[in-house]
């Protein structure tokens, strides 16, 4: 999958790049809705939506409602929190798009043999680590086909495969974050949190944990944590 992304890069000409796995289907209005969103939200670099699950015959599947911390439209800039916690802010391949200018900062990525499948991880992490502003379409406008072993959610990964995947993730993170000054991570997390366009409890938990786990001194961690908490209670939403 990653080799396909890398191969396509030199041929791209449009302003926006959409991804579609061969077994999935777009709703008829998906492309026009997404392009309209980009044009009315010029700050947006990366756009994703929730998938609608379908079976082999394209029949809609009953979806188990999972407990999620919150859903937002504007996720904003997320480089620091992604680097610090490996947080995954996006959706499956067919449900994401981005500006070509952002994709050209991400690709080409080496390690193609590491990402024969699940290369959408590289796009989702890369969009954050390369400074993309992320947004989400509220409606599910992409039909994601479930068959065989193509749906990873909820599946248990054998220990040896999990280990190899962690090594692959580490390699791609090092590659994608080469321009990120990680020595100031707690400070970057604080400023990134203050720049989030929408705040919710889940954000506070993620950023406080990331600051706690950073390599800065306890005094610095406490100072940045207080700033984050203060900003949250002044600007929080009800989500």
Characterise this structure.
This protein has 239 residues and is of the alpha+beta class. It has helices at 2-8, 30-40, 79-85, 100-106, 120-129, 159-176, 185-195, 201-212, 218-235, and strands at 16-18, 25-26, 46-54, 74-77, 96-99, 133-145. Strands 1, 2, 3, 4, 5 and 6 form a six-stranded mixed β-sheet that branches. Helix 3 packs across helix 7, helix 7 (185-195) runs antiparallel to helix 8 and helix 7 packs parallel to helix 9 (218-235). The radius of gyration is 18 Å and the shape is globular. The mean pLDDT is 90.
Approximately how much beta-strand content do the residues carry?
A: 5-15%
- In whole angstroms, the N-to-C terminal distance is 36 Å
Helix-and-strand structural type: alpha+beta
Number of separate strands: 6
Low-confidence stretches: none
Radius of gyration from the alpha-carbon trace, in angstroms: 18 Å
Number of helices: 9
**Topology order in helix (H) and strand (E) letters:** HEEHEEHEHHEHHHH
Mean model confidence by pLDDT: 90
Shape: globular
Indicate the percent of residues in helices.
40-55%
Major sheet description = 6 strands, mixed
């Amino acid at each position: 999958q990653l080799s396909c992304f890398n191969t396509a890069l030199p041929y791209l000409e449009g302003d926006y790049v959409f991804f579609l796995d061969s077994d999935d289907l777009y709703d008829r209005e998906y492309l026009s809705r997404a392009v309209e969103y980009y044009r009315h939200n010029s700050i947006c670099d990366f756009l994703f939506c929730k998938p609608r699950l379908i079976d082999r015959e394209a029949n809609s599947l009953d979806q188990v409602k999972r407990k999620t911390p919150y859903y937002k439209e504007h996720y904003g800039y997320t480089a620091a929190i992604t680097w610090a916690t490996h947080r995954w802010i996006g959706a499956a391949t067919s449900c994401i798009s981005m500006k070509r200018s952002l994709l050209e900062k991400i690709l080409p990525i080496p390690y193609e043999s590491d990402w024969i499948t699940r290369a959408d991880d590289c796009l989702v992490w890369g969009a954050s680590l390369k400074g993309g502003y992320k947004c989400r379409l509220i409606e599910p406008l992409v039909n994601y086909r479930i068959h065989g072993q193509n749906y990873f959610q909820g599946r248990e990964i054998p220990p040896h495969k999990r280990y190899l995947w962690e090594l692959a993730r580490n390699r791609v993170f090092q590659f994608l974050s080469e321009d990120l000054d990680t020595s100031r991570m707690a400070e970057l997390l604080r400023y990134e949190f203050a720049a989030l366009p929408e705040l919710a409890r889940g954000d506070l938990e993620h950023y406080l944990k990331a600051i706690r786990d950073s390599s800065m001194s306890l005094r610095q961690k406490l100072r940045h944590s207080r700033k984050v908490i203060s900003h949250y209670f002044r600007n929080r939403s009800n989500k």
